[in-house]
Write a structure and sequence with these properties.
The chain is mainly alpha-helical and about 55 residues long. The chain has four helices and no strands.
């Protein structure tokens, strides 16, 4: 969608929080625990979810 989200933030500031590796190194996260617990996502991937949001606006 070519939309930048969020405010610029220097790396040292991000590193003060938790889970910065997910942001700084662009890790893929798989919701294995949620799926094993029986949670069903409405959309299989981000593109489908974003398309639904775009259609509603």
């Amino acid at each position: 969608m070519n939309i930048r989200i969020g405010l610029p933030c220097p790396t040292p500031i991000l590193e003060m929080g938790t889970e910065t590796e997910l942001i700084l190194k662009r890790r893929w996260v798989i919701p294995e625990r949620l799926e094993k617990a029986g949670y069903a996502f409405k959309f299989d991937d981000l593109d489908e979810a974003l398309e639904q949001i775009r259609m509603k606006s």
